[in-house]
Amino acid sequence: MSAIEESVRQLAAKVRDLKSHINTEEATKTAFIAPFIQDVLGYDIFDPREVIPEYVADIGKKKGEKVDYAIKKGDDFRFLIECKTVGSPLSLDHATQLIRYFNVTDTEFAILTNGEIYHFYAQLDAANRMDEKPFMTLDLANIDARIFPHLEKCTKGKFDAETIIESAEQLKYIAEVKKVMASEFKEPSDDWVRYFAARVTTRRLTAPVIDSFREIVATSGSQFMKDEANRRLKSAQDLDEGRSPEQIPPPADDAANLAKALPADDGIETTDEEVEAVQVIKAIARQAVPVSRVSMRDAKSYCAVLFDDNNRKPIVRLYFNTENWRIGVFDKDKKEAVHAISSVDSIYDHADAILDRIKALATEQ
């Protein structure tokens, strides 16, 4: 684990433990945001040459307005930071000081945060104007490990404005494209439906034909995502068993077989978070058994993680179909203890119980 990842995960654990006890902006800054500046970004919060709290700069007729922190290196601004109370929604509508300060100072980057979620902004769309959308988001309740190399470029020791801008442009547009794709997979637009329909039919694409293909395109997208998830899980099992990538057969792509294996009308939706959670459980299981003995079987109300793909040998159940995630861990008597979790990473908090269950199942005859 890299130093940046370790510091982020330590702060995430702190936020998870203390969040319910914090109800003011000042407490949020003290408990979460100052440690983020110090431990993650690497700036000395006690050195006023680097970290200036309550930074004031009179702007036109606006006198005495403050931005919560200015981060500097010598005479150069590196970040302006606007803070909100933990749990508060983050919107630029409530960060007018940050926008004004950004637009009149020579800073190139800004952060809007509630201590748990950190939005990083640049000026990619227009010079000397802060973008309306962040180029990077760090969510301590749902950490995406792919962010760490980019976050490290923002630290004191690695900071380079040109390098960050290069990454920022790519990150921003990747995030926006992913949102568009997610929307199209869920509710295909006419353009999206027309694009695929034109490649599989010679019929004239009238409005009724487009409507008839809409469900086909939506179903195809859903099945494709499930197929990819299952393929990745199968590849991980094969690699764990010592088979080289060349020895792993490619996934079947016959439409009839796929439709049979993944029926379109079963109402089951396997999410990326469920796939990631199963990978975490496999990582825990690896301490006692080969990961090939841990399998995933999704259902409408929960996602089951089974031992030896046996319904009578459940390890855990993932209840990710609601806003409040839960995990049910089985004990030796097959009794299920259900726990609330805030993120996939929180599964590690129950690693001992999960491992005990796996060891018990491994010794059963």
In helices, the fraction of residues equals 40-55%
Class from secondary-structure proportions: alpha+beta
What is the beta-strand fraction?
15-25%
Low-confidence stretches: 250-265
Q: Tell me the number of strands.
A: 11
Strand order of the largest sheet: 1-2-3-4-5-6
Q: Provide the CATH architecture of the largest domain.
A: Alpha-Beta Complex
Biggest beta-sheet profile = 6 strands, mixed
Q: How are helices and strands ordered from N to C?
A: HHEEEHEEEHHHHHHEEEEEH
Measure the end-to-end span.
38 Å
Count of individual helical segments: 10
The shape is globular
Q: What number is the mean pLDDT?
A: 83
Instruction: List the domain count as a whole number.
Output: 3
Radius of gyration: 24 Å
CATH domain class of the largest domain: Alpha Beta
Q: Could you tell me the CATH topology label of the largest domain.
A: tt1808, chain A
Task: Note down, in words, how this protein is organized.
There is one protein chain. By secondary structure, the chain is of the alpha+beta class. It folds into three domains: 3-178, tt1808, chain A (Alpha-Beta Complex); 193-261, no CATH class; 272-363. Helix content is 41%, strand content 18%. It has ten helices and eleven strands. It has helices at residues 3-18, 25-40, 96-104, 148-152, 161-186, 190-200, 207-240, 255-261, 272-285, 351-363, and strands at 51-56, 66-73, 76-83, 110-113, 117-121, 136-139, 294-298, 303-307, 310-319, 326-330, 336-340. The strands form two sheets. It has a six-stranded mixed beta sheet with strand order 1-2-3-4-5-6. Strands 7-8-9-10-11 form a five-stranded antiparallel beta sheet. Strand 8 (303-307) and strand 9 (310-319) form a beta hairpin. Helix 1 packs antiparallel against helix 2 and helix 6 (190-200) crosses helix 7 (207-240). It is globular. Mean pLDDT is 83; it is low at 250-265.
